[in-house]
Amino acid sequence: MKILIVEDDITLAKELVRLCEKWGFDALYLECFQEVDKQFEQSGCDLVLMDINLPSYDGFYWCGKIRRFSRAPILFLSSRDQNADKVMAMVSGGDDYVEKPFDTELLLVKIRSLLRRAYEYTQADREYIRENLVYDRNQGVLLYEGKMIEMTKSENRILSLLAENKGNVVEREELMRYLWSTDEYVTDASLTVLVSRLRAKIADHTGGISCIRTRKGKGYYLE
Protein backbone atom coordinates (compact mmCIF):
# COMPACT_ATOMS: atom_id res chain seq x y z
CA MET A 1 0.00 0.00 0.00
CA LYS A 2 1.16 3.53 -0.82
CA ILE A 3 0.55 6.58 1.37
CA LEU A 4 0.56 10.24 0.34
CA ILE A 5 1.56 12.76 3.00
CA VAL A 6 0.12 16.26 2.61
CA GLU A 7 1.97 18.18 5.31
CA ASP A 8 3.71 21.56 4.88
CA ASP A 9 6.09 20.99 7.79
CA ILE A 10 8.76 19.28 5.71
CA THR A 11 10.60 17.95 8.76
CA LEU A 12 7.43 16.24 9.98
CA ALA A 13 6.56 15.09 6.46
CA LYS A 14 9.95 13.35 6.14
CA GLU A 15 9.52 11.77 9.57
CA LEU A 16 6.10 10.45 8.51
CA VAL A 17 7.64 8.95 5.37
CA ARG A 18 10.28 7.26 7.53
CA LEU A 19 7.62 5.86 9.87
CA CYS A 20 5.44 4.60 7.02
CA GLU A 21 8.38 2.85 5.38
CA LYS A 22 9.36 1.34 8.73
CA TRP A 23 5.83 -0.09 8.96
CA GLY A 24 6.11 -1.62 5.49
CA PHE A 25 4.27 0.97 3.39
CA ASP A 26 5.48 2.99 0.43
CA ALA A 27 5.19 6.71 1.12
CA LEU A 28 5.85 10.08 -0.44
CA TYR A 29 5.27 13.68 0.60
CA LEU A 30 4.30 16.78 -1.35
CA GLU A 31 6.59 19.78 -1.64
CA CYS A 32 4.12 21.86 -3.65
CA PHE A 33 0.59 22.46 -2.38
CA GLN A 34 -0.99 23.65 -5.60
CA GLU A 35 -3.38 21.16 -7.23
CA VAL A 36 -3.09 18.66 -4.39
CA ASP A 37 -6.01 16.69 -5.86
CA LYS A 38 -4.24 16.24 -9.19
CA GLN A 39 -0.99 15.27 -7.50
CA PHE A 40 -2.87 12.64 -5.48
CA GLU A 41 -4.53 11.29 -8.62
CA GLN A 42 -1.17 11.00 -10.39
CA SER A 43 0.51 9.35 -7.40
CA GLY A 44 -1.71 6.25 -7.34
CA CYS A 45 -1.69 6.31 -3.53
CA ASP A 46 -4.09 4.22 -1.44
CA LEU A 47 -4.38 6.53 1.59
CA VAL A 48 -3.77 10.20 2.40
CA LEU A 49 -2.41 11.71 5.61
CA MET A 50 -3.79 15.25 5.41
CA ASP A 51 -2.84 18.31 7.46
CA ILE A 52 -5.49 21.02 7.88
CA ASN A 53 -3.32 24.16 7.85
CA LEU A 54 -1.84 24.30 4.36
CA PRO A 55 -0.74 27.13 2.04
CA SER A 56 -3.47 28.71 -0.12
CA TYR A 57 -6.27 26.22 0.64
CA ASP A 58 -6.76 24.12 3.77
CA GLY A 59 -6.99 20.34 4.07
CA PHE A 60 -10.80 20.41 4.17
CA TYR A 61 -10.83 22.00 0.70
CA TRP A 62 -8.44 19.43 -0.79
CA CYS A 63 -10.29 16.55 0.87
CA GLY A 64 -13.50 17.68 -0.81
CA LYS A 65 -11.74 17.92 -4.18
CA ILE A 66 -10.30 14.41 -3.85
CA ARG A 67 -13.71 13.02 -2.90
CA ARG A 68 -15.06 14.06 -6.30
CA PHE A 69 -13.19 11.17 -7.92
CA SER A 70 -11.73 8.88 -5.24
CA ARG A 71 -12.89 6.93 -2.19
CA ALA A 72 -9.36 6.39 -0.87
CA PRO A 73 -9.17 6.80 2.93
CA ILE A 74 -8.17 10.27 4.15
CA LEU A 75 -6.80 10.57 7.69
CA PHE A 76 -6.47 14.10 9.04
CA LEU A 77 -3.45 14.98 11.19
CA SER A 78 -3.73 18.33 12.93
CA SER A 79 -2.78 20.29 16.04
CA ARG A 80 -6.29 21.80 15.93
CA ASP A 81 -8.26 20.06 18.66
CA GLN A 82 -11.64 21.80 18.47
CA ASN A 83 -14.67 19.57 17.94
CA ALA A 84 -15.74 21.85 15.10
CA ASP A 85 -12.55 20.95 13.20
CA LYS A 86 -13.15 17.24 13.73
CA VAL A 87 -16.72 17.59 12.50
CA MET A 88 -15.56 19.57 9.47
CA ALA A 89 -12.99 16.88 8.69
CA MET A 90 -15.76 14.28 8.49
CA VAL A 91 -18.16 16.56 6.61
CA SER A 92 -15.54 17.28 3.95
CA GLY A 93 -15.10 13.55 3.34
CA GLY A 94 -12.39 12.54 5.81
CA ASP A 95 -12.38 9.09 7.42
CA ASP A 96 -10.62 9.78 10.72
CA TYR A 97 -8.76 12.42 12.73
CA VAL A 98 -5.58 12.27 14.83
CA GLU A 99 -4.37 15.18 16.92
CA LYS A 100 -0.74 16.35 16.93
CA PRO A 101 1.46 15.51 18.68
CA PHE A 102 0.37 11.95 18.02
CA ASP A 103 1.37 8.58 19.38
CA THR A 104 3.04 6.61 16.58
CA GLU A 105 1.40 3.33 17.61
CA LEU A 106 -2.03 4.96 17.50
CA LEU A 107 -1.28 6.35 14.06
CA LEU A 108 -0.23 2.93 12.81
CA VAL A 109 -3.42 1.35 14.17
CA LYS A 110 -5.54 4.04 12.48
CA ILE A 111 -3.76 3.61 9.13
CA ARG A 112 -4.08 -0.18 9.15
CA SER A 113 -7.72 0.01 10.20
CA LEU A 114 -8.63 2.42 7.39
CA LEU A 115 -6.78 0.38 4.77
CA ARG A 116 -8.38 -2.85 5.95
CA ARG A 117 -11.84 -1.29 5.98
CA ALA A 118 -11.38 0.26 2.53
CA TYR A 119 -9.69 -2.61 0.74
CA GLU A 120 -9.50 -5.98 2.51
CA TYR A 121 -13.13 -6.19 3.63
CA THR A 122 -14.38 -5.61 0.10
CA GLN A 123 -12.21 -8.24 -1.62
CA ALA A 124 -15.19 -10.59 -2.12
CA ASP A 125 -17.05 -7.82 -3.90
CA ARG A 126 -14.18 -7.07 -6.24
CA GLU A 127 -13.40 -8.74 -9.53
CA TYR A 128 -9.73 -8.39 -10.49
CA ILE A 129 -9.94 -8.22 -14.26
CA ARG A 130 -6.25 -7.48 -14.75
CA GLU A 131 -3.50 -6.34 -12.45
CA ASN A 132 -4.57 -2.86 -11.25
CA LEU A 133 -7.91 -3.11 -13.12
CA VAL A 134 -10.70 -3.90 -10.66
CA TYR A 135 -14.49 -3.95 -10.88
CA ASP A 136 -16.14 -3.24 -7.53
CA ARG A 137 -19.53 -4.98 -7.67
CA ASN A 138 -20.70 -3.51 -4.39
CA GLN A 139 -20.25 0.10 -5.47
CA GLY A 140 -20.60 -0.43 -9.21
CA VAL A 141 -17.33 1.24 -10.14
CA LEU A 142 -14.40 0.31 -12.36
CA LEU A 143 -10.98 1.26 -11.02
CA TYR A 144 -7.59 1.34 -12.70
CA GLU A 145 -4.65 1.90 -10.35
CA GLY A 146 -7.18 3.19 -7.83
CA LYS A 147 -8.67 5.76 -10.21
CA MET A 148 -12.27 5.55 -11.30
CA ILE A 149 -13.16 4.98 -14.95
CA GLU A 150 -16.48 6.69 -15.59
CA MET A 151 -19.12 4.47 -17.20
CA THR A 152 -22.66 5.04 -18.35
CA LYS A 153 -25.46 3.13 -16.62
CA SER A 154 -25.71 0.68 -19.52
CA GLU A 155 -21.93 0.12 -19.68
CA ASN A 156 -21.91 -0.54 -15.95
CA ARG A 157 -24.66 -3.13 -16.18
CA ILE A 158 -22.95 -4.89 -19.07
CA LEU A 159 -19.68 -5.06 -17.13
CA SER A 160 -21.41 -6.23 -13.95
CA LEU A 161 -23.01 -9.20 -15.75
CA LEU A 162 -19.76 -10.09 -17.52
CA ALA A 163 -17.85 -9.85 -14.22
CA GLU A 164 -20.41 -12.07 -12.49
CA ASN A 165 -19.81 -14.70 -15.20
CA LYS A 166 -16.10 -14.10 -15.74
CA GLY A 167 -14.58 -16.68 -18.06
CA ASN A 168 -17.98 -17.80 -19.35
CA VAL A 169 -19.81 -16.52 -22.40
CA VAL A 170 -22.84 -14.34 -21.72
CA GLU A 171 -25.18 -14.59 -24.67
CA ARG A 172 -26.26 -11.42 -26.43
CA GLU A 173 -29.92 -12.12 -25.70
CA GLU A 174 -29.20 -12.41 -21.98
CA LEU A 175 -27.34 -9.09 -21.99
CA MET A 176 -30.22 -7.40 -23.81
CA ARG A 177 -32.78 -8.81 -21.36
CA TYR A 178 -30.62 -7.63 -18.47
CA LEU A 179 -30.58 -4.11 -19.91
CA TRP A 180 -34.32 -4.21 -20.66
CA SER A 181 -34.96 -4.88 -16.94
CA THR A 182 -33.95 -1.25 -16.33
CA ASP A 183 -36.57 -0.02 -18.84
CA GLU A 184 -33.87 0.65 -21.42
CA TYR A 185 -34.73 -0.94 -24.74
CA VAL A 186 -31.57 -2.23 -26.43
CA THR A 187 -31.46 -3.64 -29.94
CA ASP A 188 -28.91 -6.12 -31.24
CA ALA A 189 -27.12 -3.32 -33.09
CA SER A 190 -27.10 -0.94 -30.11
CA LEU A 191 -25.66 -3.69 -27.88
CA THR A 192 -22.74 -4.01 -30.28
CA VAL A 193 -22.16 -0.26 -30.04
CA LEU A 194 -22.36 -0.28 -26.23
CA VAL A 195 -19.82 -3.08 -25.91
CA SER A 196 -17.49 -1.42 -28.42
CA ARG A 197 -17.62 1.86 -26.49
CA LEU A 198 -16.95 0.08 -23.21
CA ARG A 199 -13.95 -1.71 -24.71
CA ALA A 200 -12.58 1.55 -26.09
CA LYS A 201 -13.09 3.35 -22.78
CA ILE A 202 -11.19 0.67 -20.87
CA ALA A 203 -8.37 0.67 -23.41
CA ASP A 204 -8.12 4.48 -23.38
CA HIS A 205 -7.84 4.67 -19.58
CA THR A 206 -5.48 1.72 -19.11
CA GLY A 207 -2.97 2.12 -21.90
CA GLY A 208 -4.54 -0.52 -24.14
CA ILE A 209 -5.88 -3.28 -21.88
CA SER A 210 -8.28 -5.53 -23.78
CA CYS A 211 -10.43 -7.78 -21.59
CA ILE A 212 -13.87 -8.13 -23.21
CA ARG A 213 -13.82 -10.90 -25.80
CA THR A 214 -16.37 -11.85 -28.45
CA ARG A 215 -17.57 -15.40 -29.07
CA LYS A 216 -18.80 -15.13 -32.63
CA GLY A 217 -22.49 -15.90 -33.01
CA LYS A 218 -22.93 -16.26 -29.24
CA GLY A 219 -22.00 -13.30 -27.07
CA TYR A 220 -19.23 -11.86 -24.91
CA TYR A 221 -17.03 -12.93 -22.03
CA LEU A 222 -14.60 -11.28 -19.64
CA GLU A 223 -11.11 -12.70 -19.88
UniProtKB/TrEMBL annotation:
The keyword Acetylation does not apply. This is Stage 0 sporulation protein A homolog. Gene3D superfamilies: 3.40.50.2300, 6.10.250.690, Winged helix-like DNA-binding domain superfamily/Winged helix DNA-binding domain (1.10.10.10). May play the central regulatory role in sporulation. It may be an element of the effector pathway responsible for the activation of sporulation genes in response to nutritional stress. Spo0A may act in concert with spo0H (a sigma factor) to control the expression of some genes that are critical to the sporulation process. PANTHER family: REGULATOR OF RPOS (PTHR48111), STAGE 0 SPORULATION PROTEIN A HOMOLOG (PTHR48111:SF43). Residues 125-223 bind DNA. It holds the Pfam family Trans_reg_C. GO terms for molecular function: phosphorelay response regulator activity; transcription cis-regulatory region binding. Residues 125-223 form the OmpR/PhoB-type domain. Keywords: DNA-binding, Phosphoprotein, Transcription, Transcription regulation. One of its GO terms (biological process) is regulation of DNA-templated transcription. Residues 2-115 form the Response regulatory domain. The keyword Signal does not apply. The modification 4-aspartylphosphate is found at D51. It comes from Blautia argi. GO terms for cellular component: cytosol; protein-DNA complex. InterPro entries: CheY-like_superfamily (IPR011006), OmpR/PhoB-type_DNA-bd (IPR001867), Sig_transdc_resp-reg_receiver (IPR001789), WalR-like (IPR039420), WH-like_DNA-bd_sf (IPR036388).
